[in-house]
Amino acid sequence: MKYRKKFPDATPYTDVRGKRRWRYRKNGKSFELGTAYGSPEFIQRYEASAQGATIKGRIGADRITHGTINDLVARYYVVAFAGDRLSQSTKVAYRGIIEKFREAHGHRPVATMKPHMVETLIAQKANTPNAANNFRKRLAQLLDLAVKLEWLTLNPARQTKPLEVEGGGHHTWTEAEISRFYEVHKPGTLAHKVMTLMLWTGAARVDAVKLGWFSIKDTDNGPRLQYRRQKTRRDKEPVLISIPIAPDLLDVLNTCSNNEGTFLQTQYGKMRSAKSVTGDMRKWCDAAGLPDCTPHGLRKAIARRLAEAGASAPQISAITGHKTLSEVQRYIAAANRDGMAGDGMALLLARPNGEQTVVNFPDMFAKNSHNKLKTKE
User: For residues 50-78, b (16+ Cβ closer than 10 Å) or e, as one string?
Assistant: First the structure.
């Protein structure tokens, strides 16, 4: 059983010479894994097989051609996916990008990769710049390994530039869109619960699905919802989020059963997956006529709300869990700039007694003050 848990679909068999071997079998396909269970070569073959590799053959003749992109990808999985440095969801996302590239170019020698070829591959995804830039990142990591193996002198992907992205990535929910969602999905529905939990915590999907009554802690400042962000869990000091519970959120949480489960658990008492939340939110948003809205956009929405309420970047990061203020600035870019600009100028222009405090700088701003303002006649 422990073999199946560690390497699903890998099974042992005895060949005609009485030697114990392993093979990967799934969906009617079979791939040889060799005799050394758990060895780097075994893992390399297993990872390639699990991705639907088409390279197979006789026992002892199933090796991937040395120096090809197929070979590099298999080696990358062994190195990058070892241990628990990457979450399972991250591995799935990385594989989805890498495998499309491998399927199209796996037979090519890595040594033939040049910057202009990478630029061409990126340009082919120009209609989806975020996807193009994600592909560039994964390719850069993949080719970093090629440089380390001395298959390349320089990484051609790192000699290219990412595409410019308009709109700042995921769409930030507006107040009108939030209201519309609540109009369609009433209290008591799963949609309403998911929306309220994510909107009032700013939690990412992978964190939101893990929250439960066990996440509520009594502190000197009253009850707080506390959790450590999964994205930082491998850091030396994982980020601890500790936020007050908003009344709207508390009303929803009070409808959840008071047990050891999670707030968003399934009807069978199991933790809901982040992937299912993404799929469900897509359906719920479509039903409300909100095609641009996504779960991640709710993190940006709470940052926007906080910015419009006058919260500073450090205050916002204490709620969203970002480690750097530069990251927070990306989220608050959608704040009500007109209102914030008006408030800022009011602070600049007004003294406590109501007089303006702007200082004149004659050498800079008043140098040409004697000139008449030109107007169109």
Answer: bbebebbeeeeebebeebbbbbbbbbbbb
- pLDDT tens for residues 162-182? 988 765 567 889 999 999 999
Q: Specify the pTM.
A: 0.59
CB atoms within 10 A of CB 26: 13
**Closest of 300, 286, 292 to residue 185, by C-alpha:** 286
Token representation of residue 192: 């309403």
Q: Are 51 and 91 in contact (CB under 8 A)?
A: no
DSSP helix/strand/coil, 31 = strand
Give every CB contact of residue 54 below 8 A, 6+ residues apart in sequence: none
Which of the four pLDDT bands, split at 50, 70 and 90, describes residue 365?
Answer: very low
pLDDT in tens, 32-82: 787 888 776 777 777 777 665 443 333 333 457 889 998 999 889 888 887
Rounded (to 5) percent helix, strand, coil in the chain: 45, 10, 40
Q: Select from 326, 328, 197 the least CA-distant residue to 274.
A: 197
CB atoms within 10 A of CB 106: 21
Backbone angles phi, psi at 123, to 5 degrees: -60, -30
Domains and CATH numbers, the chain: 2-159 (1.10.150.130), 175-334 (1.10.443.10)
Q: How far is CA 350 from CA 135, 263, 294, in A?
A: 51, 48, 41
Q: What is the pLDDT of residues 16-39, one digit of tens each?
A: 677 888 888 777 667 778 788 877
Residue type, 260: E
* Closest to 226 in 3D by CA, of 216, 239, 213: 216
Strand partners, 212: 262
Q: Which two tokens stand for residue 170?
A: 């995921």
